Amino acid sequence: MTQTPRPAILITGAAAGIGLAVAERFARAGWFVGLYDLNATAVQDLRQRLCADHGIAGRLDVAQASDWASAMTHFAQASGGRLDVLFNNAGVSVTLPFAQAELARHHLVVDVNLKGVINGCHAAHALLRATPGSRVINMCSASALHGQPELGSYSATKAAVRSLTEALDIEWRGQGIRVVDVLPLFVDTAMVRNDVSRMKTVKMLGVRLSADDVARTVWDLAQRNPQRLPVHTHVGLQTKFFALLSKLSPGWVNHWVTAKMAGY
């Protein structure tokens, strides 16, 4: 009797933060887990700790299409040709007034946060289409709701990811692929602690979400009936409040609130 392959997830930015928390949750549940990150040593060590018998790990620069092609071949051979969930998680930020940040850093944010998601979706499409009930879960952000001062490039990429998610979900739903995203506010990760925590918005609102909170949301989206998945999932009460405010309030109110919270 042929054994059915384990459900399989490919995670980018898997070495730390939200990617690590998602990897831990899916590995514990017995999924086949693909761990990919710029830090190849870290994900190889993680594989040995979490899923030595039901996982694979490798280096992936999400901004490089050639890296994605190699990673998908690598993953498909190990997973039995199955990809139930693509979790586009890799991301970087720039947290300075726009003109003070080096242009190269702005370009890196676009390359990783947006180009990386485009590359991943394009490279994974065939494998997703061959896997019944497959889905893409894109790591978005509450900053996609309204442009955030001192997070301008980051906000722009996340707004673009939000739009890309909507477009691909419409295109691919008829092919049996759902494309959704998760939008948390500030999450207690190294990115927030090291780069974002100095911002006045963070000091005012606090950091109320953990990487495990986001991982639970990703797990829920991976388990639910694909026909009933929301395209956008706002993680945490604060995020849900600001999403509702953004929807119901006039644009100038949202603009004023965002400016005041950021100290402008």
Mean pLDDT: 91
Main structural class = alpha/beta
Straight-line distance between termini? 66 Å
Overall 3D form: globular
> Low-confidence parts, pLDDT < 50 over ≥5 residues?
none
**H/E topology pattern:** EHEHEHEHEHEEHHEHEHH
Radius of gyration over alpha carbons? 18 Å
Strand order of the largest sheet: 3-2-1-4-5-6-9
Helix coverage percent of residues?
Answer: 40-55%
Strand content: 15-25%
DSSP E strands, number? 9
Largest beta-sheet details:
7 strands, parallel
Give the assembly state of these chains. Answer: single chain
- Put simply, the count of helices is 10
Please, could you describe this protein's structure?
This protein is an alpha/beta fold. It has helices at 17-28, 40-50, 65-79, 103-129, 152-172, 190-196, 200-205, 211-223, 237-248, 251-262, and strands spanning 8-12, 32-37, 55-59, 85-88, 135-139, 178-184, 187-188, 209-210, 232-235. Strands 3-2-1-4-5-6-9 form a seven-stranded parallel beta sheet, with helices on both faces. Helix 4 (103-129) links the parallel strand 4 (85-88) and strand 5. Helix 1 packs across helix 8, helix 3 (65-79) runs parallel beside helix 4 (103-129) and helix 4 (103-129) runs parallel beside helix 5 (152-172). The protein is globular, with a radius of gyration of 18 Å. It starts with 7 loop residues before the first strand and ends with a helix.
